[in-house]
Write a structure and sequence with these properties.
The protein is of the alpha/beta class. The chain contains nine helices and seven strands. β1, α1 (22-33) and β2 form a beta-alpha-beta unit. It is globular and about 55 Å long.
Length: 261
């Protein structure tokens, strides 16, 4: 299937952290189908290899690298390697994240707090900063185009008992996105956050296997289904494309209507 007009990403390159599964792979699939070259960063070599094979099935270039985004040195090295393989990065999707559930906030340890922040917030800082530096340099050379997209969460907008540390990182990401949008518009760089609702992935598997949880939550989702990775292909393609060039600083809910019902 050919992609025409503003949504044709042929010649563009997207970097997706945590792109070897779940929402990240759903985004990567949409971008690859639209013609973009895709580089995914993940910490699991087997999942990286499987994702690359899947993405190459769409006919474009796809590569994967082992990267822990909480480690600045790894991020710098992998970004350099990404540029060596693709020549440019037009869109950076900071999707890598972890969750450590505890029964109450009083059960959250300092180690839990630091670990979640190191990946979900520090990792976004590291990844966006190296990518933005490249985008600004290109803009100053006459090639003004860049897309920064962070995976936030519905938890940043609604109470999430036992996930206070996770929610704190996502609320911070929303604020970071707004500041980046204002500060970099002159370089042709947009910045937006995607806020998933109840999405069925490896990370959320324990919740969806809990019958009490499912019976309590499902009736509150107007779409009457859990979300899936494929529900993020379209929004990723749009945010990467020329069609979104005037859309920046937004926090976009993808939740089947859960929050407003």
């Amino acid at each position: 299937m050919s992609v025409k007009g503003n949504f044709n990403l042929t010649g563009r390159v997207a970097l997706i952290t945590g792109g070897n599964g779940g929402i990240g792979l759903g985004m990567a699939e949409g971008l690859a189908r639209a013609g973009a070259g895709v580089c995914i960063w993940g910490t699991n070599a087997d999942k990286n290899a499987a994702a690359v094979e899947q993405l190459r099935g769409h006919g474009g270039q796809a590569e994967a690298m082992i990267c822990d985004v909480s480690d600045r040195a790894q991020v710098e090295a992998c970004f350099t390697q990404t540029l060596e393989q693709f020549g440019r990065v037009d869109g950076c999707f900071a999707n890598a994240g972890i969750g450590i559930w505890r029964r109450t906030f009083l059960d959250v340890t300092p180690e839990d707090w630091r670990r979640v922040l190191s990946v979900n917030l520090d990792g976004v800082f590291h990844t966006f900063q190296v990518a933005l530096r490249h985008m600004v340099e290109r803009a100053e050379a006459g090639d003004a185009f860049g897309r920064l997209v962070a995976t936030s969460s519905l938890a940043s907008r609604m109470g999430a008992p036992g996930h206070e540390h996770y929610a704190a990182t996502k609320g911070a990401v929303n604020s970071l996105i707004e500041a980046l949008a204002v500060g970099n518009a002159r370089h042709g760089v947009t910045a937006n956050a995607v806020l998933p609702g109840w999405i069925e992935t490896e990370m959320t598997g324990d919740h969806f296997d809990n019958e009490r949880f499912a019976q309590a939550v499902m009736p509150r989702i107007p779409a009457r289904r859990w979300g899936g990775p494929g529900d993020f292909a379209g929004i990723a393609t749009y945010l990467m494309s020329e069609a979104s060039s005037y859309h920046t600083g937004d926090c976009i809910l993808i939740d089947g209507g859960y929050r407003i019902f």
